[in-house]
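Quick review question:
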């Protein structure tokens, strides 16, 4: 609505007096998404709203727009929530551990029901007899790489005589800018970076994958 633009700029200017420009722009982004989602919910006939995002502007706007029209919201988490978490309402939250659920509740979220699909509950020991003598291993990263942990994992794999190849597939939004430099500095032909476009292509030649992102 063009009539709302002056109000948006007024809010942004007030924000900019107290915070940096990035945060002011995030407010404009949230208002824009909210207006768009309100329009979609008003014109649609939805029984459920499912989100995998909670604390970015579009996630907050989506939740608030759904609440405005009485549409229950289901959160499908894809990792541990990072504080601060937006105080939002969910009819159902699907999380992968009790600690994640506790963070949402401690941060002020209202959750009707929590469903935990824990990794420990589905744990199955790796059968060594199913692996070949020489193993091609993959490491599929999330965007927020813990450098020390990745380096430790790679060094442990390189020290194993059975590991013939290590393929690192960075996240499309990889935030560790020194990844390529570090791989080159290792000067080990067994270690390489993925150049393929799809996860499926990389998986074809691997026997074992260490997954750090949801696409695996």
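Suggested answer, residue by residue:
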């Amino acid at each position: 609505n063009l009539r709302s633009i002056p109000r948006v700029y007024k809010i942004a200017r007030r924000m900019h007096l107290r915070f940096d420009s990035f945060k002011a722009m995030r407010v404009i982004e949230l208002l824009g998404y909210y207006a768009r989602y309100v329009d979609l919910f008003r014109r649609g006939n939805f029984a459920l709203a499912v989100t995998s995002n909670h604390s970015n502007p579009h996630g907050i706007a989506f939740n608030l727009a759904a609440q405005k029209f009485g549409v229950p919201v289901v959160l499908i988490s894809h990792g541990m929530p990072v504080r601060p978490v937006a105080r939002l309402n969910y009819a159902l939250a699907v999380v992968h551990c009790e600690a994640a659920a506790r963070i949402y509740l401690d941060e002020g979220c209202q959750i009707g029901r929590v469903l935990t699909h824990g990794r420990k509950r589905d744990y199955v020991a790796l059968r060594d007899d199913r692996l070949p003598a020489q193993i091609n291993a993959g490491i599929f990263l999330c965007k927020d790489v813990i450098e020390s942990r990745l380096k430790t994992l790679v060094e442990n794999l390189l020290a194993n005589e059975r590991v013939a190849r290590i393929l690192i597939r960075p996240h499309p939004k990889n935030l560790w800018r020194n990844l390529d430099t570090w791989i080159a500095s290792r000067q080990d032909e067994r270690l390489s970076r993925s150049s393929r476009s799809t996860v499926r292509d990389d998986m074809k030649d691997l026997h074992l994958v260490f997954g750090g992102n949801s696409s695996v």
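Why it works: Residues 21-43 form the longest helix (23 residues). The radius of gyration is 22 Å.
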